[in-house]
Amino acid sequence: MVAFILRRLIQSLFVMFFVALVSFSMFRFVGDPVNQMVGIETSIAEREALRERLGLNDPFLVQFGRYISKAATGEFGVSYQHKRPVAEMLVERMPATLELAFVSAVFSLLVGVPMGVYAGLNRDGFLSKVLLSVSLVGISLPTFLIGILLIFFFSVQLNWLPSFGRGGLVDIGLWKTGFLTIDGWKSLIMPSITLGLFQLTLIMRLVRSEMLEVLRTDYIKFARARGLTNRAVHFGHALKNTLVPVITITGLQLGSIIAFAIITETVFQWPGMGQMFLQAVTNVDIPIMAAYLMLIAFFFVVINLIVDMLYYVVDPRLRVDTGKASGHG
Length: 329
Hints:
By secondary structure, this protein is an all-alpha fold.
């Protein structure tokens, strides 16, 4: 297990370095940040002085090395536009994005898994076919359109839910949460459904297909032959084995939820990291853009590591294979 984790950690460091290199290289071509920071009347000499002060005239490798060494200590420089440390801005915005991603993931799991189990156990049922048809809509419709439709019905027409913002927040130290107020929860409903709907349909269809596959295996036939009840066969044997691949997909989807919250945050004016990233792209604020991509890559790496460890714990075949490999070594 220790060797397994060490291998994953080394791979993760390579991934982080590669993401840093790609993001830093790519953002050199999005525009000149100096043009966004100064007015039209600023002279060429003043512009050059500013470029020199920001280190933009240094060779690429010097700039990248400086960036990597600071990023390793959690320092991502100062925002060109806001004149504030980027790390400080990310810490401010992170609670909004993580709370939205967490609620979306829980929603997609709590609804998607039971729907998938039902559709798998009642494959020819009318409701099962309805669920599959609805899931196609969830996969096909763009996220921004789902968000706009929800705003139109529940905010404009029915006036039940707020159309933008986080609602009432409670400050608990470094974290400002909306979990402790009714307004905060009301503000979370539509964005979390919008963000989690695609993951919900994906999980539902995955659980259904895995359930159908598992129900055809020999050990399920043996379980039925032993006289076990349908409930014991379906939930004690079939569902348990169905959830092994679901853990992997769900973990990867959690990273995707955090990364692709940008669109949902824009539609609902949700004050998270994704919205800040889009504003940074508009203003060519390279420190924010590079730091955001590094942070998203870090989330993916950590989530993948946790998923791999869970997979290792849940699936005994991996432990057996690892034991054999170490035995041969």
